[in-house]
Amino acid sequence: MELEKLLERCEPVIGLEIHVQLRTETKMFCGCANRFGAPPNSLTCPVCLGLPGALPVINRRSFELGVRAALALHGNIQNDTGFDRKNYFYPDQPKNYQISQYELPLALGGYVEIENDSDAAKKIRLMRMHLEEDAGKNIHDPDSNSTLVDLNRAGTPLLEIVSEPDIRSPGDAVLYARSLREILRYAEVSDCDMEKGNFRADTNISVRPRGSGELGTRTEIKNLNSFAHLRACLEFEIKRQAEILESGGQVLQETLQFDPVTGRTSSMRSKEEAHDYRYFPEPDLLPVFISEDRVGEIRGSLPELPGPKRRRYVEDYGLSEYVAGVLTADRESAALFESAIARGGEPKRMANWIANEVAGQMNDRGLAWDECPMTPKMIVELEELIADGTITRKVGRGLFPEIFGTGKPPSDIVREKGLAGGADLSEIGRILDRMIEEKPKLVADYKAGRKKAVNAFIGPVMRKTRGKADAGEVVRLLEGKLGAPDEGKS
Ligand code: ADP
Ligand code: ZN
Ligand code: MG
Fold first, then answer.
1. How many domains does the chain have?
2. Domain range holding 430?
């Protein structure tokens, strides 16, 4: 049956559990480097290898980054927290337990705001946030038909962020995950690089009859490492569950995996096989107390976050929601905009350059904002060349890919290309502006296509620049200001 038809009668209910790798120098309970891409097992020690007798020590920084993240997400920091053992066997976790927070998580509550096209801003509430260590990685090697284990990642710090089942569509699930990622990157707690596994989502999904206040039986899909997969697996799963319900059947509570090639989910384990983790307090670590003063200090060190920044751009600079959204999507793009203004750039003009031309070039070239070659100075200078009449806006836009690609100052490119001609184009521009203002008759003649009018503009320009101006250049500037004249009259 069509998904749309099913959705008239069935309502999806979605909750996400997101694991975020915290950006520390060292691992969570030992001094090994927290770094991606090193040779396998080169970043290990007795603690993260789980050797008998090795004792963990809490990395203060990982704890503080967790608090920072939780505050950025409006969570209530718990002053008394602690760690528990979550017991299960897995080859990439040699201790046979994971140190996690169960009874006393770092934070409770909090929310993430999302804005889709149809609703007003909507708050997705959070249940809890807790710290835990990551496991290593199993690498399935088809050549030797064996599985290898790399423990470089074992013991690196994660923050798990668990949402309430407040999400009602795959699109909103993606918006939620995107906003969350944006906030955490602003707060500089994680790179949230999905390709490196810095940001991984598990999604829980159930379907219920519209109007019902009860939650249906859910399935859980683990380890989604792209927004496209998150959306696709939810779409598949909503249809599958809705069809079961429509035909009077029952959804089985189970853990699923998503195959991006077929676009289908399949069973990993059922509820009967669910783990019993036998949590108990980690005996090798003391409980942790964090004072309100320290929480206050960390709160005070947070930068302005994307939501408030977006609203400020709209209110203070009169930007559209769309442009403000593009500018604040990354911390670097917002910083570029703000520095351009600080250098005297006119806010709306700066916003348009960045949201259109800069963002367009970045997109075409597949660059991330922290690789942007455009400096605020270059954007301000380009706009100045247009404002003082040296070049037209159209020429400026045309030059943009070259400015972006070479990283040269716009004025150099204009000079090299001879666009500024023999005379100072800004001077010609000013002379023309004055004539346009003072001689409406001449402007009208020009617009009506009288050739003599063009000469009537060129003459005075030549006189005033003592012949330095290039007639072709004057005509081009004039066309930039008044448009091309009508054809064929004399
Ligand atoms: P567990 O203890 O099995 O991990 P939790 O209560 O911690 O379960 O919930 C895990 C995630 O599943 C949360 O994000 C929550 O919002 C979501 N969730 C719980 N029940 C449902 C449901 N019936 N439908 C959809 N999502 C759900
Ligand atoms: Zn170690
Ligand atoms: Mg859970």
1. 3
2. 425-482
